[in-house]
Amino acid sequence: MKKVFKRASLTLLIGALASSVANAEALRLLTWGGYAPDEVVAQFEKETGIDVEVTKSNNEDMISKLRATGGSGFDLAQPSQDRVTSAQADFNIYKPIDLSKIDADKFIPSMLEATRKNTQLDGKVYGVPHVWGTSGLIVNRKSAPAVADYTDLCAAGLNGDVSYRLKRPTLIGFAFAMGEDPFSAYNDKNKYQAILNKVEEKLISCKGAVKTYWSGGDDLLNLIRSGEVKAAMAWDSGGWKLNSEIPDVTFVAPKSGALGWIDTFALPRKTKAEDAAYKWINFVMRPEIAAKITESAGNFTASKGSDEYVNATLKKQFQESFSAQAVDNIKWYPPVPPGLEEMEGKVLDRVKAARL
């Protein structure tokens, strides 16, 4: 009788444990490489008791996965802010963010506001900011000290010493440096074309200053290392990498504003762990946790004050490149309306083909 009782008790215990494991809360995260490092996941799981299942992805793959399932299969996704509203309008794969559930005071205000604006559809907000980066200027401060904005790449004395890509960021950057606001003209194709025409004329007149139009980041960094290029339009992380090797070279936020991208947090429409998703958002926005993600991903996050917690070298590089004013002056990419990239492509083709 005792053996039967023991067996029954053991069976009940095993069943209870199995049920507990089966019912354990889990967060299924669809994100980019480096955004959920093992150290951060382990600390979150320890503090909350919530298991985190990480699936690495990119913008196209996120949309594909969520579209195929109608917004299910994941509890939190991280699309770029300029890819949120179009995917939502076309496929209805996200649900609105409840802004009352995030710790807004942990976010850099200008980034939170920009993402609220750029992920808003029909009066509802579908994203909050997480990891961000910019393109601006990489400058040798000793040999090209006067380069402080995109159009300075055309300055006299830099003939054959500069480089940039023949891609849309160059069109956008030069437009801002010329006093235009291309983003405000996105929904007026005639106005946007007029801005492109001005930029086209400027870029053609600048061709004599260009060593080469770079296409690969490693190629550009090597040109700067060799001294063949003194100033270029490129990404912040590339500038800081070079600064670690060549102190005179670093990333400079242009006077007219660096061009910024933001990868967001967005809730899939059929999330099963919404509370866990908000807990993760608030956890990783703690500045000391955000710094660990910066060390892993190579880019900073929208966590206010997190630059104080990164390694001393990166902290110094960031603070030299970005004052608080420069951060607030970043021009964040909004969603691109249909047809604009075709217009831009024609301009870039004409610039490439033009002869001085």
Task: Characterise this structure.
The protein has 356 residues and is of the alpha/beta class. The protein has 2 domains: 2-132 and 261-326, 3-Layer(aba) Sandwich (D-Maltodextrin-Binding Protein, domain 2), CATH 3.40.190.10; 135-259 and 334-353, D-Maltodextrin-Binding Protein, domain 2 (3-Layer(aba) Sandwich). It is 45% helix and 17% strand. The protein has 14 helices and 15 strands. Strands 7, 8, 9, 10, 11, 12, 14 and 15 form an 8-stranded mixed beta sheet that branches. Strands 2-1-3 form a 3-stranded parallel beta sheet. Strands 4-13 form a two-stranded antiparallel ribbon. Helix 7 packs parallel to helix 14 (340-353). The termini are far apart.
What's the layout of helices and strands?
Layout: H1 2-22, E1 26-31, H2 38-48, E2 51-56, H3 59-69, E3 76-77, H4 84-91, E4 94-95, H5 109-118, E5 120-121, E6 124-125, E7 128-140, E8 162-164, H6 168-177, H7 189-205, E9 210-213, H8 217-226, E10 231-235, H9 236-245, E11 249-252, E12 259-265, E13 267-268, H10 274-284, H11 287-297, E14 300-301, H12 312-321, H13 324-328, E15 331-332, H14 340-353
Parallel strand pairs: 1-2, 1-3, 8-9, 8-10, 12-15
Antiparallel strand pairs: 4-13, 5-6, 7-10, 7-11, 7-12, 7-14
Helix pairs in contact: 7-14
Describe the structure using short key phrases.
single chain, 356 residues, alpha/beta, D-Maltodextrin-Binding Protein, domain 2, 8-stranded mixed sheet, globular
